[in-house]
Protein: Peptidoglycan bridge formation glycyltransferase FemA/FemB family protein
Amino acid sequence: MSYSERGAGAGGVRLAVGSISVAEHLAFVRAQRSVSFLQTPAWGQVKTEWRSESLGWYDGRQLVGAGLVLHRPVPRLDRYTLAYLPEGPVIDWTGDLDAWLDPLAAHLKAHGAFAIRLGPPVRTHTWSAAQVKEGIVAPDIKRLTDMSGEWADPVGARVTERLRGAGWLPQSPEDGFGVGHPQFKYEIPLAGRTEDELLRAMNQLWRRNIKRAAKEGVEVTVGEDLKAFHDLYVHTAERDRFTPRPLGYFETMFAALRAEDPERIRLYQAHHQGDLVAATILVRVGAHAWYSYGASSTHKREVRGSNACQWAMIRDALAAGCDTYDLRGITPTLDADDPHVGLIQFKVGTGGHAVRYVGEWDLPLRPMVYRAFDLYMKRRARRS
Structure:
């Protein structure tokens, strides 16, 4: 086992980075209040087209940080890889970033990486549901960033500044969606709240739809029928014009995440008079729960099965002691004429708030290879 070290940082900390076992990685994850599911060892088994590696940061003999690295080879240059840490790594982002990231870069470069891509799990701004609603109807506001946030995180501003100063390159596109994971998300805070308080925070349409589903006799259960979910998901993809993942992907996802923790992932199914009208997937790590995938039938949409599934997942996340229910990505548009605005309009009805994260950043380790890879990705994007 080899480790890469860096000299003592501003705080006098000397950290070493090296490969750790899956068991060590998982034990570290379990000791944290919250970690992205994209940074669990199991996620490396889901992303079968990438080679995965668990890395650890050591202060002496103490494991103080961990990260899942997904290695993507360069076309025609298989000995070099893009080292990707989605929504990670799990380190102290409030500390001396050089002390954490320099040994990471040294380790990965020594093992063939031409660049590192990471997405710090650090927020920069938060907008309340009320602010989002006001922005949508205001003629002079087109994006979330046209408004001052309800709350700005100084840690996020400092991380952004330090990454840019150290030569990292921002990758998050202006519309919030790219090849990686979204910079803007919609989240519902759960800590210290009751079901009644969560319902009161929703808009009238959401409350009415939840009541409508109950009145119509929609039953939501935690199920096992991934084939039924996938059939409905493919139907949804055809209706909403997106490319669905194959059934095998979900089978692998459930097997890997459940092997790591039986409560890690759940399938929720809403039935009305025996018909499957909606289905959703919930993922939970510690105190954070994510709405991961959803599907709904065009038939019987009026019984509001999707709202029933969402409410069941929110209630279960609350009962499990979660701090956050994460509705995942949104675009930052508030322009009523932009077709993407419907996504944030749907999610803002749950209450909660819109959140901007630091986003994804690249550090070229071998600039010539990085430029070739960047050119390849841009050409592929133009062809698609």
